[in-house]
Write a structure and sequence with these properties.
Blueprint (H helix, E strand, L loop, with lengths): L1 E3 L2 E2 L15 H27 L17
Antiparallel strand pairs: 1-2
């Protein structure tokens, strides 16, 4: 969703059900940390891409620019 001419709001939803042979409580705590780590990595990737030698900005899957 466009917030203004320089910002786009993205919403990320994640649901985790680790399952398996681990107890649900500890497994759920680890899964929550993995989601946080993934979001932090996405933020770092976005910042790194903006600093690249040929920053073209961010695009949709079809290659058109995000605005």
């Amino acid at each position: 969703m466009k917030v203004d001419d320089q910002h786009t709001l993205a919403e990320y939803f994640a649901w985790s059900d680790p399952g398996g042979s681990l107890p649900a409580g500890p497994a759920s705590r680890f899964a929550g940390g993995a989601i946080k780590n993934a979001l932090e990595a996405m933020g770092k990737l976005a910042a790194d891409l903006q600093k690249g030698p040929d920053p073209k900005g961010f695009v949709k899957p079809d290659g058109t620019p995000l605005k």
